[in-house]
């Protein structure tokens, strides 16, 4: 099989097809997502066999896995070797894709959608509330705005690194768009922060009394406790990984809700798909924060 070796520059190599072990399935992939974490690993020289989100079909199962998985079209996260024609996965981190769902839509939902909906639930977002999303043009951010709108948001504010993303963000449901250097205007009830750093404290300052900020990026940042106390604001961290391990039934509920939103047209994922041989440009698009929505590689076509 072919796979991507993330050397400098990344290239295509041939490798034996893996064999599923106990509790594993073998997936013939269609798409694999390019994410910011991958970009960081490539820069650090640690992206040997990186994981990520994939969509594909189960073609073999290992011991302890029901044969009913054979032939299932699935999407989810694999822990390593995502950027290859065939990859090993575990059923707990996969979900069956409903009939008729396009591969690109499925790829956007199985990870970015879970992050977006999970962050909204962590922030106890309710109909009639206002919300601001940083990193709004990202794979998770652009879905978070749409889900918030579908859940009855009174106002959706998108924050992005550059004004040239404004048309895209308005098409994704934003009532207004601001850049990180502009004044963010009226306070909101909930902030979803997908960027971190200095924006974390700015997000807290943008909250109404009793407002909630959910931090779900790996960008770090610090919040002064005294900025929370007078107006009873809160900051919550969110991780899909921990939730999947500790409360898989909640993840299953989120997936069901997301597939329904997708089927009803409540969310419209935006995905830019590159051929596998164009992995370099795909990484560059994400590294330079120019992506509008999710970025993916078509791993079913390596030549």
From TrEMBL:
Disordered: annotated segments: 1-20
Lineage: Bacteria, Bacillati, Actinomycetota, Actinomycetes, Mycobacteriales
Domain Enoyl reductase (ER): 5-297
Nucleus keyword on record: no
The name this protein goes by in its record: Zinc-binding dehydrogenase
One cellular component (GO) term of this entry: cytosol
Alphabetized UniProt keyword annotations: NADP, Oxidoreductase
GO MF assignments: mRNA 3'-UTR AU-rich region binding; NADPH binding; quinone reductase (NADPH) activity
Gene3D superfamilies documented for this protein: Medium-chain alcohol dehydrogenases, catalytic domain (3.90.180.10), NAD(P)-binding Rossmann-like Domain (3.40.50.720)
InterPro entries: ADH-like_C, ADH-like_N, ER, GroES-like_sf, NAD(P)-bd_dom_sf
Natural source organism: Nocardia terpenica
């Amino acid at each position: 099989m072919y796979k991507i070796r993330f050397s400098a520059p990344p290239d295509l190599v041939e490798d034996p097809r893996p064999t599923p072990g106990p509790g594993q399935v073998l997936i013939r992939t269609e798409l694999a997502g390019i994410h910011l974490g991958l970009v960081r690993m490539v820069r650090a020289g640690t992206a040997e066999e990186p994981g990520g989100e994939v969509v594909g079909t189960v073609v073999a199962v290992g011991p302890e896995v029901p044969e009913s998985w054979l032939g299932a079209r699935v999407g989810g996260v694999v822990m390593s070797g995502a950027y290859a024609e065939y990859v090993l996965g575990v059923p707990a981190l996969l979900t069956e894709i409903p009939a008729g769902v396009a591969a690109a839509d499925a790829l956007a939902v199985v990870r970015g959608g879970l992050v977006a909906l999970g962050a909204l639930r962590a922030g106890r977002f309710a109909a009639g509330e206002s919300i601001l999303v940083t990193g709004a043009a990202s794979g998770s951010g652009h879905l978070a705005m749409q889900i918030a709108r579908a859940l009855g948001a009174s106002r959706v504010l998108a924050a992005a690194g550059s004004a040239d993303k404004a048309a895209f963000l308005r098409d994704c449901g934003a009532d207004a768009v601001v850049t990180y250097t502009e004044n963010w205007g009226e306070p909101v009830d909930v902030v979803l922060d997908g960027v971190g750093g200095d924006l974390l404290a700015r997000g807290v300052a943008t909250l109404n009394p009793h407002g909630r900020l959910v931090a779900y990026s790996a960008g770090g940042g610090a919040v002064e406790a005294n900025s929370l106390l007078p107006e009873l604001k809160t900051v919550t961290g969110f991780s899909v990984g921990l939730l999947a391990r500790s409360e898989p039934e909640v993840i299953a509920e989120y997936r069901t809700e997301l597939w329904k939103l997708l089927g009803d047209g409540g969310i419209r994922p935006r995905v830019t798909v590159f051929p596998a041989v164009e992995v370099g440009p795909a990484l560059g698009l994400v590294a330079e924060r120019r992506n509008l929505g999710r970025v993916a590689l078509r791993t079913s076509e390596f030549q």
